[in-house]
Recover the amino acids of this structure.
């Protein structure tokens, strides 16, 4: 079709199955429309008023015909249902070894965070041939992360983490859109997905993307954890002030109302923004400030990444420094030491909106 392609290129593991289902439905729709339309025109013309045809013995039933027009569409419908259900399940269950990248939707831009700290705006670099899992959240309204060439799209909503995944199959640059109307500049919320050969992607990532070598998410989380004064209460072991966060991620947390939940990213986010929704068993209300409106989604993702690195309480006690920072802040391996001054300042004013992501803002993040 020259410069007018019928569809975007097939550039992911889902593209072929998606197109197979789509075009099969189109073909079946056309075929049945033509058949039904042809019979309607035939009978309308043949039995029109005034036409001399034998109407003395009309048929009221025809078992072979009824079985035919019932069974054939049923079988075709079941085939399409199977293909669609299979694709849907595959798209909702990412491989365990998928590389995780974090996406934050804002009016009107996409902010991308790689696990080693590389950050991008309106551009997503991914390696070819490796599954990529996108963990997404919105900072304001509902968006939808849509990559037509990959045939993937999923809602990005405020207050909840959503997920989509894919494996890029062809190197190149592909369009990225917001697929949900999100305000006056919705049409400008576009970007580019850059699929790179694995070696080129590894080199790009190691060089810090298009910026200077950044702070990793774990390091940024450790810094935010100290600056906000979290280590004043959450130390290497449970205290009267707060439970320890060491070894928390993935474990079951019990609450004062008798319920329990797995401590995943969504639970940690809720505990940071609204800590009184579910209070840990053995603790009371009003012991921790609510950080809703005080922390950005980037800071929360960094803190979650940091908390994931925290080992067991036993290892925390073994590795704890001789003198703690107002209650014993403990830094995990491979994270830079954070200054005591930031923790002391945050202890006095835990809800102050401090500038944690200076490097991010220098790179043009946020609005």
């Amino acid at each position: 079709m020259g410069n007018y392609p019928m569809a975007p290129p097939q550039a992911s593991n889902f593209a072929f199955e998606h197109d197979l289902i789509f075009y099969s439905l189109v073909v079946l729709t056309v075929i049945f429309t033509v058949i039904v339309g042809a019979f309607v025109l035939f009978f309308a013309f043949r039995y029109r008023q005034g036409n001399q045809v034998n109407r003395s013995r009309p048929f009221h039933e025809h078992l072979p015909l009824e079985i035919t027009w019932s069974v054939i569409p049923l079988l075709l419908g079941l085939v399409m249902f199977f293909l669609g259900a299979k694709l849907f399940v595959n798209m909702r269950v990412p491989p365990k070894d998928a590389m995780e990248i974090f996406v934050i939707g804002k009016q009107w831009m996409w902010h991308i965070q790689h696990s080693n700290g590389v950050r991008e705006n309106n551009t997503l670099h991914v390696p070819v041939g490796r599954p990529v899992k996108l963990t997404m959240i919105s900072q304001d309204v509902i968006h939808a992360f849509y990559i037509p060439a990959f045939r993937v799209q999923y809602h990005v909503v405020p207050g909840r983490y959503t997920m989509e995944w894919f494996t890029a199959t062809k190197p190149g640059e592909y369009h990225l859109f917001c697929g949900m109307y999100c305000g006056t500049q919705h049409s400008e919320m576009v970007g580019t997905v850059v699929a790179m050969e694995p070696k080129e992607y590894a080199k790009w990532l190691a060089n810090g993307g298009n910026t200077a070598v950044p702070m990793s998410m774990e390091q940024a989380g450790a810094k935010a954890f100290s600056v906000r004064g979290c280590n004043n209460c959450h130390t290497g072991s449970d205290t009267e002030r707060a439970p320890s966060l060491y070894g928390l991620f993935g474990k079951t947390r019990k609450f004062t109302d008798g319920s329990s939940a797995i401590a995943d990213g969504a639970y940690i986010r809720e505990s940071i923004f609204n800590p009184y929704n579910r209070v840990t068993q053995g603790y009371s209300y009003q012991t921790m400030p609510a950080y809703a409106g005080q922390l950005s989604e980037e800071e929360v993702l960094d803190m979650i990444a940091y908390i994931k690195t925290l080992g067991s309480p036993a290892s925390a006690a073994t590795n704890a420094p001789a003198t703690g920072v107002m209650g014993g802040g403990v830094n995990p391996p491979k994270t830079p030491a954070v200054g005591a001054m930031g923790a002391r300042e945050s202890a006095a004013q835990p809800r102050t909106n401090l500038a944690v992501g200076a490097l991010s803002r220098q790179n043009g993040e946020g609005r």
User: Anything to note?
Assistant: Residues 315-367 have pLDDT under 50 and may be disordered.
